[in-house]
Amino acid sequence: MIGNMKVGGFNFFNLAVLIAMVAALGACAYDAEEVTVRRHRIRYEPIYDESRCFIPKTQGEDVIVPAAEEIVTSPFFGKRYDRSILKGVLTASAVATGRYANDLLRGRVFRVPRDTVPGAVVCPMFTELPVAPDDLRELWDRFAGGARGGWRLAGLFFEDCGRDGFSCSDRELVRPTILIDEARDRWTLVHELMHFNFSRERKRDPRMPPLSSLAKEAERRKQAVRELFAAYKKTGPDRNVLAALQAHSSWLLREWFYHTMVHTVLEEVAVEGLLVDEFLSDRLQNVSPASLDIALMYMERSLERMLAEYDSRSIKGVEGAEDLSLRALRTFIYEEASKRNWKEIRSSVQGDIAFFSRWVSSTRNLIDSRRGRIYEYFRSNPFIRFSVETKRRAAVGHFEHSPEWRVFELWKD
Ligand SMILES: [Zn+2]
After folding, report:
1. CA of 172 to the centre of ligand 1 (A)
2. What is the reported pTM?
3. pLDDT-derived band at 39, boundaries 50, 70, 90
4. CA 26–ligand 1 middle distance (angstroms)
């Protein structure tokens, strides 16, 4: 599947040297409340583009026959998706995947032409897709803009609603759209397609609270926190007021924060984890193993980002605590309840802490088990050219040392 290349006397799979970064935004192109745009930026490395050239865009099955829906629950946060869509593209070629995705999204999968960089070897994969129209190209440039240190936008998935007479909907995707850098590989397109897949099933699932109502309810509760917090400070310790604060704090964590993160930042873990599983089980083909590196970093950074969000998501304008983070609110309630021996409130806070810890550790386990399998893959394919990040970890002893690792020494920066 992968072409071999001879460099420095060694035969190795020509793989990417890259660093990936996830930036799943809780923001929207046109309507901040209802739509989520997800963007993926990949650090530009010429060799990364070159690695595409070893998998011709026509490699793989040319025809994808749409199959009957098969809704399944993934091991990632119980997120549901239509497995027939993923199955359809597993062994397809890049060209066929583009055509299939474009049919599924009713003609709304567009490519963004790659600027030529002197000396770079680029093999565009998606030249058969229509070029993004000007307004979407502007959107792309906006998200691509501000890229520092060579980060490059790889793909976007969003609902193009809230303009042109298309209202957003809680229960169905409206004008779902994918934009993709034409020189990215199939993995990226399948990744964006999985965002479509997860998003559609989330909206179809009546048990899932619509994100727009969660956002509205969150605003209402934040306002209540502001008032209760001020009252507590003003009139002195009051058990009922503290209990009410705790009820809001608990909801904000378990409903609003949880669902928002699982739909945005942690959806990256769900998508990449699923694709890693498919790849390592030899089901997902015609993609570069370089994507394993990206996937691992995507997943780790997403979890870090979720933890950072938890520390920084704040309730603005609380009297006496201008930016009250969810964590700070929880600490305040816990300390007050402990001081005054209000056991029920304290154990309710402890319940929230346990909920959060379970959530974080189960996410860590999901990532760790994939990390183990990815490292194992690298170990058994010693001539794979590792990314800078993988090499760094190897250098600091994240890997068990094995004879194969002598190979990587050659590429130490
Ligand atoms: Zn993504």
Report:
1. 19
2. 0.82
3. low
4. 12
